[in-house]
## 1
Amino acid sequence: MERIALRVPVLVEGKYDKAAVSSAVDAPIVTTDGFRVFRDAEKRALIRRISGGGIVVLCDSDGAGGVIRSYVNGIVGRDLVYPVYVPRIKGKEKRKKEPSKEGVLGVEGVGTDVIREAFRALVSRNPQLLRGGGASPPRDPVTKADFYSDGLSGAPDASQRRDLLAERLGLPPGMTAGALLAAVNVITDRDGYREAVEKTEKNG
């Protein structure tokens, strides 16, 4: 089935949640890395930076998910957060040996259809979140290959280059190649990335 195309990023807890949501939603997806967001200033700065036009927050339907959701509301501001909820379904994810403390499935385990229905409910209330009415062309994201060819990864001075690009885009310094790539694909498009790289190289 066609994925729901959003114009705003989606924030989830972990990489398995990200993979599950990406099967139902066409949007940049960023993770909190669970509770890491509480102690990671870089992660918090990134979330603030990408949420200027609003951000969808989808956490597990357990107590821990509620704590993370509340924390994100605090650092971003409730008026910029569009919450999505999945139902509490008893069970255990296949990759885990034991169920969660509360015995309910996380976002990664509820299934694509459940996630899709949760986002359909969101956009029915907030149609302005749809990108191009849901019928826009697929995004042309910046890739790892672009980063490599531009010296942002795999080069002796890659970290310095990333810091210069991050500064140009209003992002925190010290980001890994993967984190910066994810951020770039949230806050700009390929043309904006190319322009930022060229200006960085010119003024570097």
## 2
Amino acid sequence: MSIKPINVGLLGIGTVGGGTFTVLQRNAEEITRRAGRPIRITMVADRNLDLARKITEGACRVTDDAFAVVSDPDVDIVVELIGGYGVAKELVMKAIANGKHVVTANKALLAVHGNEIFEAAQEQGVMVAFEAAIAGGIPIVKAVREGLTANRIEWVAGIINGTTNFILSEMRDKGLAFDVVLKEAQRLGYAEADPTFDIEGVDAAHKITLLSSLAFGIPVQFDKAYIEGISKLDAIDIQYAEQLGYRIKLLGISKRTEEGVELRVHPTLIPAKRLIANVEGAMNAVLVQGDAVGPTLYYGKGAGAEPTASAVIADLVDVTRMHTADPENRVPHLAFQPNAMSDLAILPMDEVQTSYYLRLRVQDKPGVLADITRILAGEQISIGAVIQKEPGEGEPQADLIMLTHQTREKRINAALAKIEALDVVAGKVTKLRMEELGK
């Protein structure tokens, strides 16, 4: 007796779509053995019909009308790889309304409209799987949602954007300025022609928003995330950080505190001895701290045709296995039962507590340090380390670098306003946040 295959409709056969088609065909036998029945792509929608025909080689139907796929009665699962918030949302909602399961790599869509999409899926009794939306081939969604179920998760910190990590690695290795390295990253294909989403931290913020929901059982709240990218980062700060035993990485961070959940993306100093500080190039890594398990680290390729396809197909297998299960017995979309979500608030950045790296340009004369430490003490900020750089020959100003102990963001901002008003301080103070990421 042959078991009826699961039919998949693929929306978009670009990089990830092409990878998904290839890997699914190459490993068909293995995947069938795992899933319990064959999974086959029966329909592909792409605006580029020639490309779609070339990749599929007549193995399935090809159309340039994505709506035909989500409405086709023979399609069981829709894989959405179009991206963006526009037509992708319409297609996903239509697929759900038509009783089809959805597998997507679209972090932007879920970070912004996830609550509405998951609710619709819940009502229709279908699944929306999104392993490929966070950190490419790394199975971080499954790890947090299922593997760490026993834990009260304390925090998550991730290098979850390969473009920015590549740029920071190059800036550190070669001592080059941001703009120079960005051009190189674009030439090598690591950065898009318009790199804004990556370099300004938006892409990482989409992903940490989803991870915060999986970790803490809160609704997705992208609009409350604090987002700061790397475009204003100075190569000199990377060097100074290095001298102090730190690496600078763009981190997505979400922490549970008594006052609420921190949800933030920004360049961060991490001790160089931490494993995650040594993640170089376009690789991704996510560090999860659970109360029972302690810290666990997930490392791998965060983008690319086959790594991302690996996650898409894992979701297809999951959905295939659970396809006939009673919807009440499936793993909830955001790890916690929908009626048991928490309304823990997202903390405004002003209320976040962390340590800071400060770089000041100061006049080289006695009493300057005393003035600055007095202001910091007035805001109850204590200093962990100070480096005073000798001014160059005939230069009236020198760099002063300070590392603070933990304090509240609003306190450091108040102190910096006063410090910048001092006659002996030139221009603005450079402020970067620091995380120990260890017990």
## 3
Amino acid sequence: MLERRTAAALLGLALVAISARPAGAQPVSWKVAVFGPPRPATASIEFLAKEVAARTGGQIKIEPVYAEALSKATEMLDGLKAEAFEAALLCASYYPGKLPVFTVLDLAMLTPDNIMAQARVQMALAEHPVMQQELKRWGIRMLLPTPLPQYQMMGKKRITRVEDFKGVRIRVSGEMAKVLEDFGAVKSLVPAPETYTALERGVVDMITFPGTYGFASFRLHEISRYYIDKISLGTQPCFWAVTEGAWGKLPAGHQKLMLDLREPAARAAMQAFAAADGKDYPEFKARGIEVINFPPAERAKLAANAGKHWQEWVADKERRGIPARQVLEFVHAKIKEYAR
């Protein structure tokens, strides 16, 4: 009986692969530019690569290329426009003037904790007409959403209240930085691959990254003294982008397959984040790092100013002719819809 079930399951997988392989389709190979090493944030593209290869009988090969081997993190958007590679991991804070609409998801304390809710908000935003115009200018589309855990903090300064931020140099993206700058923090936007050197040399005192995995992935726990948890500043908007040229060469069946795999890929990332937390917390403590749960009352002081900065974002973008209030209201509605 077990042998029959196994045979039936294998036959089912074979039929799925055959159905996803359009007649006459040519083999496709994509290079994906990635900054940093393989880590939970790359689990979604790794899942997609594995599933697409399996379901198309190897006709589509998606190859993530890590550690900025194809492009610096800050140059990946231009690389996509030049079609130097087919896909890449983009984070809007590296290109604030080039992806201004997408920075709405960078606003402090806006995005929900729930990873799947974040993924659905990102996918909805990617289909909004204003965001569509932004992506079209660069000749790209969203291949996969990249939802992230809430941003926490690690480094060499002990922070237990908002007053402790005065004069502290923090690696933090532009919009999330504002609620910290209100209390005297000094913003520094250091590309992720350079954070270890910046902290080691004292260029910055603290680093913000999502969850625990970001700190461990870039080895920051090796040179840090404190981990500030539950400060939950929000999340940085990142996504896996693909060029319209590469996407347009795919048969409709292959395009549908990739779109259908978006949510499963986000779930794979969510599971990877949870597994990393289970491993990283004990390792932090074993290294003598003091784990500080930022007090809710102190976090509320940061959050009290967040709405003011959301409106500043709206005003700034509308001065540039972007219907930012419409975008922010759309995102609020989607967060409410998906975070239920």
## 4
Amino acid sequence: MDQFSRTELLVGAEGIEKLKNSRVAVFGIGGVGGYVVEALARSGIGTLDLIDNDKICLTNLNRQIIATHSTIGEYKVEVAKKRVLDINPEAVVNTYKTFFVPETAAEFNFYAYDYVVDAIDTVTGKIQLVMQADRTHTPIISCMGAGNKMNPAAFKVADIYKTSVCPLAKVMRRELKNRGIKKLKVVYSEEVPIVPHGDAESLAITDQNDTSKKRSIPGSNAFVPSVAGLIIAGEVINDLLRSEE
């Protein structure tokens, strides 16, 4: 008996071996991506590439699984790596303190990945991830908006062109259609976004694409982005198990 014995009851020895031999890249290790990494590590994914240039801050404590008072100020990818290796010491974890945008896209070889997870929150970055995965025929799943939501049961898995309600999905549909992308698996919520209470502008941060602008920060909680992340992880695991060798 080993740590994956209970999983093996569901997927068999061959399934465990397939997961062990898989390499998954997770772009964005925040409220959604952190839970993706957690579930992939506990499922026995052999190699994880973690991409995020942020450090953990005080406002991450309400929702991010890697955020504790003791990890404030540390790079998210390094904290996540330590956690993964504590869960599965045999895993290989590659970390990149990189903000993924078109200008940094060349740093990543998508041919090396068996699956890509898009858990970043900038439209330009998300589009670039999808375009790069499309060129290399690499499976990808993209998270749409999880902010300003309170109902974790409203998430669905669908093709981007069959989504509704979600404002981010609407933008992505238009932009991807203009670029000739025929399909994209996404996790999205059909909950109408809540108008934030109080002074949301006080939490605005500098837009890394344009330092002259501020980017507003949506409200969030512990139970919506985490559910989105776990749904994504489940899709990745099941797709990998169904994939041809």
